[in-house]
Every structure is written in C-alpha cells, then in structure tokens.
Amino acid sequence: MSFASVTIMTACLIIMGSITLLSLNIDALIADLEQQNEVVAFVDDSIVDEASAAALQTDIMNVPNVWGADFVSRDTAMSNFMSKYDDRLMEGIDSTVFRHRFVIHLTDISQMADTKAELEAIPGIAKVNAQIEYADRFVRIRNIVSVVSLILTVILTFVSFFIMSNTIKLTTFGRREEIAIMKMVGATNSFIRTPFVIEGLILGLLGGVLGFLAVWGIYSVLNSSLLDTLTGSFITLIPFERVMFPMLGAYVGVGVLIGVFGGVNAIRNYLKV
What we know:
The chain is of the alpha+beta class and about 270 residues long. The chain has helices spanning about 1-35, 50-55, 55-60, 75-85, 110-120, 130-175, 175-185, 190-225, 240-265; strands at about 40-45, 65-70, 100-105, 125-130. It has nine helices and four strands; from the N terminus they run H-E-H-H-E-H-E-H-E-H-H-H-H. Strands 2-3-1-4 form a four-stranded antiparallel beta sheet, with helices on both faces. The protein is elongated, with a radius of gyration of 30 Å.
C-alpha cells in the first residue's frame, strides 16, 4: 500500500508539473509575442517635416503600456517596401506616397484597445493600426490555460491527499486495538500520532522527489526532441534550469504537506477513546 501510495502521488505530481510547465511555456510564448507584436501609428499628412514628425516620439512614450517606439521615415518605409516587392512596381512612385510612422511596442497586449485610443488622441497622429482581434485571442488562450491549470492542480492535490490518507488508515486499522490500549494506559495523542505522521512525511517526500525527477526527465526528452524537428525553429521551450529549484521546493513542500496531513487525518478517529 505504501508503494501504491507513492506511485499514485508521483503520477499526480507528474501531471501537476506537466500542466504547470505547459502554462509557463504558454505564458512565455505570449510574452514573446507581446514583444514582437507591433502597433503602427501613422503621422498626420500635414506634418511633412521629418524632424517634426520624430518629435512626436516623446508623447508616444508617455502613453501608458508603451515600452518602445521606433520612428520610420517616409524614405525608410519606401525602402522597406521595395525590399519586399519587385522594384518594377515602384516605377514612377516616390516617397511622398508613404507616411512617416512609428512602430510601437506594448507592455501588455490585453490593453491594446485602450492604448490605441490614447495614441490616436495624440495631436499629430492620424491613424493607428493594431491587431486587437489577435491580441484578444492570445489573452483568452492564456487565461483559459491558467484557469484549467489551477483547477486540475487543486483536483490532483485533493486526490493525492485522499489516497495518502486512506493508505495510512489501512495501516492504523490493523493496529486500532493497540492504539486503544496505549490510550488507556496514558499515552498521549502526540506520542501515538508521531510514527504515523513520520510515515506520511516520508511517503510524501519520496513521492515529491520521484515526481520532480520524472518531470525533469520527461521535459528534457521533450525539449531535445522538439529541437530536432521543424517546430523547434518556431517554438522554444523555456530551460528547465530556470524553474528547477522553485519546482523542486514546490514538489517537496506539497509532498510533505499531503503526507503529514494525511497521517494526521488517518489516525484522528482512533484517538477518540
């Protein structure tokens, strides 16, 4: 039963750790997309002087949720366009066709709609292009993953506690008469409870450590396998070393708490003599 208890707790912790790492990687991916996500603010056509247009950068940087703004002149915008398309398409077209613009980077894409409105309110900014719909999708995915991760973590913690508690209950059931006799001869509750609590602590600690090692191994194999595929060039997993020690502490802490509380809960009824 002890082996079964440790095995099931390890399995629960592996699932919990996998969900946590998935959530962390999705958060990191969305954060990276936030860094790459650009909002383009076009300067009013009435401002034709490049120096006057560039002076708007200070006002843009003062807008909350903006961490970067790069000025792109008409000539630069034309050069960028020509580098992407056939030069013959540009015959007879000069840089006046293009507008001065700012490529703006946001801190939090969930506030993109509000930031767009504030940017458009700046005198000298004629129009702001922002992919609000895609930003909302990214935020929605992140929120769903976070909620599901929390729910599953709570459920699996309860399952682990239930299994650990019942495992120790089976141990105490065969010794219930001995416990009753010890109570009658004056043994204190703490004296009787301590061996079972220590048993739960050891089982929980063992399950936590095994769960951590299993997640570490699975994550390392998955990471190396992903690097060998085409997907690895687009998706990069966060290094396990970055979360190693917090996860180890969490696993050991959860395992010990579940084991100790399981031991206390298992013997509680037998102490009522």
